[in-house]
Specification:
Layout lengths: L4 H13 L3 E3 L5 E2 L5 E2 L1 E3 L8 H18 L5 E5 L4 H11 L3 E4 L12 E2 L7 E9 L3 H12 L3 E10 L3 H10 L3 E6 H10 L5 H12 L1 H4 L2
Parallel strand pairs: 5-6, 5-8, 8-9, 9-10
Antiparallel strand pairs: 1-4, 2-3, 6-7
């Protein structure tokens, strides 16, 4: 769920300003989950803009202080959330670790990188939520390491029903700075997307599993 509507509006405006939102219905994007989509949110671009990454860090810290006050460690989901996670951990004065999509095939073969002890409480930082599968894989890894995952905060959420179901099943609290609905409202108001684009996006949201077929 979006934590604050004003923040969601600001983040949406920033994402459009820096052209972090990509649209391509003719040659759709393929997510890690395998879903085809006419829209892609590239949150990595926010790191190139001091004002925006600072605002994101401040909003993450505010949510964590208000909703998850007793945290031992900040964990970022690789790779998109590593930098944002480090910024948050630095601001909070806490240790940082990051979680890989899978174990390394060489060296120590770690999935979790950094110092992490069983019994520690963790907040997970993510850049975006699509189906939630890869994000919750990180949660599973942290829980398997004996940690208590208090919840997750992310920059953007596509608001897919599948993600809501997955997070509910995993019993993981989720707060995001912005979401699909706020973004589309701003995109229409600013003429960032055409009527044709809007129709394609609406059709995709009706049934994302079948849209790419």
């Amino acid at each position: 769920m979006v934590y604050n509507s004003d923040t969601a509006n600001t983040i949406s405006e920033y994402l459009l300003q820096i052209k972090a939102i990509k649209l391509n219905a003719k040659d759709p994007f393929t997510w890690a989950s395998g879903l085809k989509s006419p829209i892609y949110c590239d949150n990595r671009k926010t790191l190139s803009f001091h004002k925006i990454r600072t605002f994101i860090r401040q909003q993450f810290v505010q949510i964590i202080n208000e909703e998850f006050p007793s945290i031992d460690v900040v964990a970022g989901v690789a790779t998109g959330a590593i930098a944002h996670g480090v910024l948050v951990a630095q601001e909070l004065g806490l240790p940082f670790v990051y979680v890989r999509p899978s174990e390394k095939k060489h060296g120590l073969e770690n999935k979790i990188e950094g110092q992490l002890d069983s019994g520690q409480s963790v907040i997970v930082i993510e850049d975006l939520i699509s189906t939630g599968k890869s994000s919750l894989s990180a949660v599973d890894a942290l829980r398997s390491a004996g940690c208590e995952v208090k919840g997750m905060v992310a920059i953007f959420n596509y608001n897919l029903e599948k993600a809501r179901e997955n997070f509910k099943k995993a019993k993981c609290r989720l707060y995001t700075l912005a979401d699909y609905d706020h973004l589309i409202q701003h995109a229409v108001a600013s003429n960032y997307i055409s009527d044709k684009d809007l129709k394609s996006l609406e059709k995709w949201r009706e049934n994302p599993d079948e849209w790419g077929n």
